[in-house]
């Protein structure tokens, strides 16, 4: 199995920034690199957009995944809202017929339990460039709301980061092992 892991934002694009100045781009890079390591320990091939704090365009991300003929595309993000109390994980897919629709539901269920947050479910959108322009089944994970001060505070804890990474990794591996 060849996975494409896309760690949202990077470089000049920090993505969402929490109340305490935690950058989405830094958090998803840290989480993503642990997921990469976990998948590779189980003989999965992994291609990533970035391995440091560098900016890459949306077109670059989908083009690299397509050129590498990856089997699945997973984009990792933190959500944000003006409502500082907003919480929960959600996963976006291109359509309900996607081969990763059930995987997306499992990611939401497992992640919400692992970090004790609301399961906001699977959402469908044709607007996300990385879902639209990839040739392989793709999903976009919004782990939780970095704009929520308690979530942002938890992101500084190694155990919390590990719980997120382990939950996503184990769900992806379970999916791969059942194909």
TrEMBL record:
Gene3D superfamilies: Zn-dependent exopeptidases. InterPro entries: MurNAc-LAA_cat, N-acetylmuramoyl_amidase_3. The keyword Protein biosynthesis does not apply. Pfam families: Amidase_3. The keyword Hydrolase applies. GO terms for cellular component: outer membrane-bounded periplasmic space. GO terms for molecular function: N-acetylmuramoyl-L-alanine amidase activity. SUPFAM superfamilies: Zn-dependent exopeptidases (SSF53187). GO terms for biological process: peptidoglycan catabolic process. Keywords: Hydrolase. Residues 62-173 form the MurNAc-LAA domain. CDD domains: MurNAc-LAA. This is N-acetylmuramoyl-L-alanine amidase, AmpD. It comes from Romboutsia ilealis. The lineage of its organism: Bacteria, Bacillati, Bacillota, Clostridia, Peptostreptococcales.
């Amino acid at each position: 199995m060849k996975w494409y892991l896309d760690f949202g934002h990077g470089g000049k694009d920090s993505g969402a920034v929490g109340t305490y100045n935690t950058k989405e781009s830094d958090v998803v890079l840290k989480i993503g690199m642990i997921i990469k390591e976990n998948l590779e320990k189980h003989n999965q091939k992994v291609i990533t957009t970035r391995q440091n704090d560098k900016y890459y365009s949306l077109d670059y991300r989908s083009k690299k995944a397509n050129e590498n003929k990856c089997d699945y595309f997973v984009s990792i993000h933190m959500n944000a809202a003006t409502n500082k109390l907003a919480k929960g994980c959600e996963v976006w897919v291109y359509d309900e017929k996607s081969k990763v629709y059930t995987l997306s539901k499992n990611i939401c269920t497992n992640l919400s339990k692992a970090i004790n947050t609301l399961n906001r479910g699977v959402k469908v959108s044709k607007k996300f460039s990385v879902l639209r322009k990839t040739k392989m089944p793709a999903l976009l994970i919004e782990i939780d709301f970095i704009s929520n001060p308690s979530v942002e505070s938890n992101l500084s804890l190694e155990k919390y980061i590990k719980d997120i990474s382990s939950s996503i990794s184990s769900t992806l591996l379970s999916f791969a092992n059942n194909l």
